[in-house]
Structures are given as C-alpha cells and as structure tokens.
UniProtKB/TrEMBL annotation:
Gene3D superfamilies: 3.20.20.210. It comes from Hyphococcus luteus. Catalyzes the decarboxylation of four acetate groups of uroporphyrinogen-III to yield coproporphyrinogen-III. Residues 20-29, 139-155 form the Uroporphyrinogen decarboxylase (URO-D) domain. The gene is hemE. GO terms for molecular function: uroporphyrinogen decarboxylase activity. CDD domains: URO-D (cd00717). InterPro entries: UROD/MetE-like_sf, Uroporphyrinogen_deCO2ase_HemE, Uroporphyrinogen_deCOase. Its EC number is 4.1.1.37. This is Uroporphyrinogen decarboxylase. Substrate binds at R25, Q26, A27, G28, R29, D75, Y151, T206, H322.
Length: 344
C-alpha cells in the first residue's frame, strides 16, 4: 500500500528537516470551537459517544493548525465504562468511577464484550478517516493498563501513589488480574480502531513514573509488551507508539520491545539522552514542555529548536512532552507550528 502521509513516512525510516507535527491533547478546552461544541453536546461522555460531534472535535485542531495527524477524540476511561463501571466527569474535579472491589468482580470483566458498547468510537474513527485528506494520518489510542487501573482502583485521579503500590504488594493477584484483563480488552479495542481506519495507535501510560523497577516491569513494561506484540501480530503494518510518562532511563526497556515502533518522550526527559539512547532504535516523538506554550515566544521557540536540531538526522515527530492544558493560548500553538515549519 502506498504510504503518503508525512507522519507515516517517518515510520518507513524517512527523515524530514521539518518533521511531521501533532500534539497530545490537541483537541479540547483551550480551543473556543471545542468549548462551543462541548456546551451543545451535554456531558463529556455524550460527546465521546456521538460519532458526528466527536469526529468534528477530532478535526478542529487539524483544520485550525494544519497538523499532520489527527488523534481520535475519546478518553482512556471508556474501557472501564465499557466494562460496566459507572463513569462521570465532574467539572473541575476530573473523572469519577466505581472501583472494582473484589477479585471475583475483576474476573467477571473477562466475559464482558467491550467492542459492542464502544461501537460509536469505531464509527468516529471511520467518519474521521473519511473526512481527512490523504496527507494526514489518524491516530487511535488507549490508556495503558496501569494508568487505567490507577483510576479504577482510586475511583478517580489517585491522590497517593503509595496506596496503589502498597495494594500491589498486598494483593498482587487483584492488581495483576485487573491489569491482565485490561490488557486483553485493550488489544481488541486497538485492533478494532485500526480496522475502522486508524493509521497508528498510541498507548498512554501517564502514571508509569515513580515505580520501583520490578513493579514497573510487572505493571507497565510487560503489559505494554504483550499489547504491542499482539497488535503488531494482528496488524503488522500499523505503527504502535508508547508513551510511558516519567520513566527516565527505563525508556530503553520500552524502546527495545519488539512491538514498539515509536516512543513518546516526556518533558522531564533530557532530549540529548533521548537522542543518544532511543533515536537510533525507534521513531522518537515529542518532548517539548506543554507549559512553555502558555507564555509562548522566544523561550518556547528555543526549547522547540533543541528537539529540531538534535533529531534532524533521525526519524522524528514533533510533539509535546505531555498534553496541552486548558490555559494554552491557541495563537501560541499556531506560532509554534509556524516556527517548526520554518526552522526545521
Ligand atoms: O486531543 C486528544 O489528545 C484526544 C483526546 C484525549 C482526551 N483524553 C480527551 C479529554 C486523549 C488522548 C485523552 C487521554 C487521557 N485521558 C489520558 C492520558 C493522557 C494524559 O493526558 O495524561 C488520561 C490520564 C485521561 C483521563 C482523563 N480524562 C482525565 C484525568 C480527565 C479530566 C481532566 C480534565 O482536564 O478535566 C479527562 C477528561 C478529558 N479527556 C477532557 C478531554 C478533552 C476534558 C473534558 C471536558 O471537556 O470537560
């Protein structure tokens, strides 16, 4: 199949002086057009499950900034929702969900079909794919099992990571049982996104940082190994990008995985270290601290230039080191895109 988008060509080994660009959390509250549509849609979940509106929101930033890739508008917590856990998003408090309480409950998740309740998401993917021009890629995604499990176990954003680590030591069967079932459902979910039209998929492990090695290996590296290998085995031509945030030099453990085609560098990682240790092994993506885009201007451009210079001779995708926050001025995003296009 002819590969045409700049984003996908990077995975074929091409390098660009001006790399392809997309941004984590490129759709969302910092965009006035999102806030307008969100107000019409009702709840955030209503928006995620409305293919016409979700597709429109997916396309908004691509249109406004002429980005090289769209990322499906959905959320990592749609999997627990599809498993039957009550989910809601409370303004200014973040997500709230029912925690599973027993190993028996976790075991019952095995028999639940997540693809049926998530069908509107696949419809969003196919609608968006049909609306995108051929030079733009569509990225599907899921949360990594550990990150999704933290929200499930804490019933929302975890307040104390120590509580969940302690739970892993005290009830390893419960925690690994939950992670295992999430990994299985995530494999099905990502393959279905690819079949609906996603050109690549990314796994977000936002809360991988700060875990001691054997725990990180058990709850993050090995589950991501299993998921990425299964997805590649089923759909060998689709790039898989891993974004385990805050793992420092353990990044190499992920980049070495057979199923890892791309690695999302977070803002805390030394870009020189990333170039030396990951740049020859996988497609490196991202790195720029999203908070620099809030003031914008010279400091943002100088920081962006560090990545452009370091990664000019290896396949690289320009992105952030985590998502945009709602305070980001859209004009600064436009200025950043312009800077990368002119100075790459
Ligand atoms: O543009 C994109 O990146 C695509 C859409 C996307 C969303 N969430 C939309 C969203 C993606 C890829 C995510 C991933 C996600 N969701 C992660 C991993 C990446 C990361 O940011 O660390 C996590 C941890 C979540 C869980 C989640 N979803 C939280 C903690 C919150 C509440 C925080 C907040 O900003 O309110 C959400 C809600 C959410 N997901 C919003 C959006 C646009 C805001 C909801 C709203 O419009 O009110």
């Amino acid at each position: 199949m002819a590969v045409s988008s700049k984003f996908l060509r990077v995975f074929e080994g091409e390098t660009f002086s001006s790399p392809p660009i997309w941004f984590m959390r490129q759709a969302g509250r910092y965009l006035p057009e999102y806030r307008k549509l969100r107000a019409q849609a009702g709840s955030f979940l209503d928006l995620c499950f409305d293919p016409a509106l979700a597709s429109e929101v997916t396309l908004q930033p691509v249109r406004r900034f002429d980005l090289d890739a769209a990322i499906l508008f959905a959320d990592i917590l749609l999997i627990p929702h599809a498993l039957g856990q009550k989910l809601s998003f409370v303004e200014n408090e973040g997500p709230k969900l029912d925690p599973p309480v027993s190993l028996e409950e976790v075991k019952r998740f095995r028999d639940r079909d997540v693809l049926e309740p998530l069908a509107p998401v696949f419809e969003t993917v196919s609608k968006t794919k049909a609306a995108l021009s051929k030079d733009k890629a569509l990225i599907g995604f899921a949360g990594a099992p550990w990150t999704v499990a933290t929200y499930m176990m804490a019933g929302g954003p975890m307040k104390d990571p120590g509580v969940l680590r302690q739970r892993f030591y005290e009830e390893p069967e419960f925690v690994t049982g939950l992670i295992d079932v999430l990994a299985d459902k995530t494999i099905d979910y990502l393959i279905a996104q690819i079949d609906a039209g996603a050109d690549a998929v990314q796994l977000f492990d936002t809360w991988a940082g700060g875990l001691p090695w054997p725990v990180l290996d058990a709850v993050s590296v090995r589950p991501l190994d299993r998921i990425s290998r299964a997805v590649k085995k089923a759909r060998p031509d689709t790039p898989v990008i891993l974004f385990p945030k805050g793992v420092g030099e353990k990044a190499t453990e992920y980049a070495l995985l057979q199923g890892c085609d791309g690695y999302g560098v977070d803002y805390a990682m030394d870009p020189g270290w990333a170039r030396g240790n990951l740049g020859e092994r996988v497609v490196v993506q991202g790195g720029l601290d999203p908070l620099l885009v809030i003031p914008g201007g010279k400091p943002m451009e100088e920081a962006a230039d560090v990545y452009l210079k370091l990664f000019h001779d290896v396949p690289y995708i320009f992105n952030l080191g985590h998502g945009f926050t709602p305070q980001t001025p859209p004009e600064h995003v436009a200025a950043l895109v312009d800077f990368v296009r002119r100075n790459g």
